[in-house]
């Protein structure tokens, strides 16, 4: 029984259910038998055995043997079955370049979040994937922004830093002692985690922030409590290139 149990578990690795594996092993040991005999051997109800036998037949593991009185069933050689699966796998591998090209042709995934709860959900997008990595962000002045969203972002900033994320931020100079005082203070306390470049002439929508992650971009509208996420590495790379130009030139 222990041997059969081990064999059954191994057969489950090729997609068989527990009862299917048991029926297949019964067929191997008893050769051509009726559904009734399978039911007795496996201690499975006869109606259930018929269903299992048909599923195994469709998977190519059981043969239905013609017989004058009652239908007989026999297990197909496992070697033949595996060789057939290998041929199918090789056929799919041969068209993988075309399949990958089709996948690459699709556009980026875009997600929309609204309300304070939606903004909180947007902040959790790929949070764990950004551990040990850097956000490059443009921050607006937040003039007229929702105070509740600032509390949410401040708490998230601290958690992100504690989770080994870092930030390079571009923001207006006149906001560092107002709306962004908390993150400005964090930059002083955590200089390795947060680097900020303050710009005097900052012609940028006051309530829009753009956060560029490793493979997505998050666009926050703090006044209207709306967030758009573009989940696409090429888009993130393009935004990051723009960020680097502004960061290096300071304009």
UniProtKB/TrEMBL annotation:
Span of domain Transcription regulator TrmB N-terminal: 11-76
InterPro entries: ArsR-like_HTH, TrmB-like, Tscrpt_reg_TrmB_N, WH-like_DNA-bd_sf, WH_DNA-bd_sf
PANTHER family per UniProt: HTH-TYPE TRANSCRIPTIONAL REGULATOR TRMBL2
Protein name: Transcription regulator TrmB N-terminal domain-containing protein
Organism: Candidatus Kaiserbacteria bacterium RIFCSPHIGHO2_02_FULL_55_25
Taxonomic classification: Bacteria, Candidatus Kaiseribacteriota
């Amino acid at each position: 029984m222990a041997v059969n149990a081990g064999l059954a578990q191994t057969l489950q690795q090729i997609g068989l259910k527990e009862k299917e594996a048991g029926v297949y092993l019964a067929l191997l040991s008893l050769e051509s038998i009726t559904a009734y005999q399978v039911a007795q051997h496996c201690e499975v109800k006869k109606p259930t055995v018929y269903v299992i036998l048909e599923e195994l037949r469709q998977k190519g593991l059981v043969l239905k043997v013609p017989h004058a009185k009652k239908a007989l069933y026999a297990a197909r050689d496992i070697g033949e079955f595996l060789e057939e699966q290998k041929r199918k796998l090789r056929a799919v591998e041969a068209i993988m370049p075309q399949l990958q090209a089709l996948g690459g042709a699709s556009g980026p995934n875009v997600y929309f979040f609204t309300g304070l709860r939606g903004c909180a959900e947007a902040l959790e997008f790929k949070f764990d994937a950004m551990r040990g990595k850097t956000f490059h962000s443009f921050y607006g002045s937040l003039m007229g922004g929702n105070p509740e969203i600032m509390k949410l972002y401040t708490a998230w900033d601290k958690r992100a830093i504690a989770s080994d994320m870092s930030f390079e931020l571009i923001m207006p100079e006149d906001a560092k002692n107002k709306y962004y005082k908390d993150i400005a203070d964090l930059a002083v306390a955590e200089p390795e985690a947060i680097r900020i470049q303050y710009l005097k002439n900052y012609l940028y929508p006051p309530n829009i922030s753009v956060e560029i992650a490793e493979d997505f971009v998050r666009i926050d509208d703090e006044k209207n409590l709306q967030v758009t996420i573009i989940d696409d590495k090429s888009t993130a790379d393009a935004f990051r290139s723009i960020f680097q130009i502004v960061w290096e030139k300071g304009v």
